[in-house]
Please model this.
Amino acid sequence: MEIKLKALKFEAGEQLAAFVEKKVSRLARFCEGLSEEVEVALEDHLKQGKSAKIQLHIPGEELIIEREADTFENAITEAVDAMKEKLTRVKERKFEN
Model:
């Protein structure tokens, strides 16, 4: 799985990129048929905090999760956890049909 990292309004360091890679790559375990490309956008809001947006494609659906937190690491962790839940629900829904 290729993870495209977009840092908006700031320069992402190597440690942050490695953290994103480690966390987001775990999503592949939750659903077969994930797209080869996952897009992660990080944005630094001056007053509201940091935001992380994860966008991926599974056959028939485009899944997008966005979370805000005080740090990028917390925002990424929250977004990945929410995406895991969403992937699980989608997977269960497909098996019901």
In short: The chain has one domain: 2-96. The helical segments are 14-25, 72-96. Strands lie at 2-8, 37-45, 49-58, 61-69.
